[in-house]
Amino acid sequence: MGRLLSYAAKRAMEGNEVVILNISKAVISGSKGSIIRRAKVRLRTRTLGSQDKAPRHPRKPTTYARRALRGMLPFKKPKGKKAYKMVKIYDQPPPIYADAPKQNIPGAEATKLRSPYIYLGDLSKEIGGISYE
Question: Which residues pair with 119 in a beta bridge?
Fold first, then answer.
């Protein structure tokens, strides 16, 4: 997922529109238990004050990926916000992109990964999000 999103962030900063399809099939390298445990620890962060000021924790694969993408961009600057808006992430491909040419990102395939990994859709199910398959 990180290589895919860093590629998308770089292309968006160059001014290109990027569309990512089937984000729930993106992989996160590492043991399944440690990744899930780290995500659940992050979910425990909360506030005792106003819920309007409480942190929002992404659980769906699309929002989880958008949050990771946001960390790769200079989001507080105008060019970073513009680049963030140029990246579209979908779990299910919409009919608009059914016949569009698709491109695989070099170096981001799960087949080259030799370490244990988990799919983003599986992580989402574990932390309470919805994944469409």
Answer: 27
Name, in order, each residue with C-beta under 8 angstroms of 48's C-beta and a sequence gap of 6 or more: none
CA-closest candidate to residue 40, choices 59, 55, 26: 59
Q: Are strands 18-20 and 87-89 parallel, antiparallel or unpaired?
A: parallel
Q: Tell me: the pLDDT tens digits for 30-72?
A: 999 999 999 999 888 888 888 888 888 889 999 999 999 999 9
DSSP string for 68-121: HHHHTTTTTSHHHHHHHHTEEE-SS--GGGSSS---PPTT--GGG--S-EEEHH
| pTM score of the predicted model | 0.86
Could you tell me which residues come within 8 angstroms of residue 53 by beta carbon, excluding any fewer than 6 positions away?
47
In this structure, which topology does domain 2-126 adopt according to CATH?
Answer: Ribosomal Protein L13p; Chain: A; (3.90.1180)
| Domain boundaries along the sequence of the chain | 2-126
Q: What six digits make up the tokens of 37?
A: 């445990």
